[in-house]
Design brief:
Elements: H1 4-7, E1 12-15, H2 22-32, E2 41-45, E3 51-52, E4 58-59, E5 66-73, H3 83-99, E6 104-107, E7 111-114, E8 117-126, E9 133-140, H4 165-185, H5 195-202, E10 209-214, E11 218-226, E12 232-235, H6 237-240, E13 242-245, E14 250-255
Parallel strand pairs: 1-2
Antiparallel strand pairs: 2-5, 3-4, 5-9, 6-7, 7-8, 8-9, 10-11, 10-14, 11-12, 12-13
The structure holds biotinyl-5-AMP (BT5).
Keywords: Biotin, Ligase
Pfam families: BPL_C, BPL_LplA_LipB
GO molecular function, one term: ligase activity
Length: 256
């Protein structure tokens, strides 16, 4: 796989024929030799054999069906704002697909949907000792409908969208790097950087009735906003009132 346009956007881009998890591998490589990995850097493959999702779940795809894209960033953003990078990635992918004519929307916290089906999932992980962040995105670009791993999934090929890896990765990186740069320029403030408004604008979740499953309770109500911490704000009605749910505490968010 050749990705000249994407490679021109970052300090280093490496394509692997096959790997267990691009996130795990990039964390391992950066930790072993940080100087060899200037940020932003990308490790990617279209044949990931042990892709990881959130909370021990897995991301699965047959060889050649899905792009696993891991991006190393070392933005100058306060630690408590780093959660915004994962929302920035979902928004960047959604905006990139929209720019290519695909009607994608972002489902909080980390999915990109086309017509209610998941085309992309994001998994952000911090490196030890504040050494940066690895943001992984799995993007089903080429899978035939019949080859999709779960009934809730879709792919760009199945939706009649573009499938060229270089075009897709370059469009995503352009949006992501611009968003992260804007965030760093204003010290990590999601409002002044325009990131919170961008996340709201592509959100498929705001305005919907949702059921949020947390470790010990289910929260039901209308998702009304994303707060300055990146949490989803759920209006449980006159008795329950408003409740903000953080990504780390949320097992699932389902539409009612
Ligand atoms: C995610 O987790 O959606 C995050 C996926 C991140 C994958 C990328 S690929 C590059 C990098 N390296 C990695 O090892 N991971 C990252 P979560 O929200 O927990 O969703 C996982 C759920 O999505 C699964 O339980 C399935 O229901 C569903 N799923 C699995 N594979 C899928 C696929 N190819 N397309 C759509 N949905 C899928």
């Amino acid at each position: 796989m050749e990705l000249p346009r994407a490679a021109a956007l970052v300090a280093r881009l490496e394509v692997l024929d096959e790997i267990g998890s691009t996130n795990t591998e990039l964390v391992r490589r950066v930790t072993a030799d940080p100087a060899a990995w200037p940020a932003p850097a990308v490790l990617l493959t279209d044949h990931q054999t042990a892709g990881r999702g959130r909370l021990g779940r897995s991301w699965s795809a047959a060889a050649g069906d899905s792009l696993a894209i891991s991006v190393l960033l070392r933005p100058d953003v306060p630690t408590q704002r780093l959660g915004w990078l994962s929302l920035a990635a979902g928004a960047a992918m959604t905006e990139a697909l929209n720019g290519l004519g695909v009607a994608a929307r972002a489902k909080w916290p980390n999915d990109v949907l086309i017509d209610g089906r998941k085309v992309c999932g994001v998994l952000a992980e911090a490196l030890p000792d504040g050494a940066g962040v690895v943001i992984g995105a799995g993007l089903n670009h080429a899978a035939d409908r019949a080859a999709l791993p779960v009934p809730t999934a879709t792919s760009l090929a199945a939706e009649g969208g573009p499938t060229d890896p270089d075009l897709l990765v370059a469009a995503y990186l352009e949006r992501l790097l611009a968003r992260v740069n804007d965030l760093a320029t204003v010290g990590g403030d999601p409002d002044r950087s325009g990131l919170r408004d961008a996340v709201r604008a592509v959100s498929d979740t705001i305005g919907r009735r949702v059921r949020v499953l947390r470790a010990d309770e289910a929260v039901t109500g209308e998702a009304i906003d994303i707060d300055v911490e990146g949490r989803i704000v759920v209006d449980r009605g006159p008795i329950g009132g408003l409740l903000a749910c953080a990504t780390g505490d949320v097992e699932h968010l389902r539409y009612e």
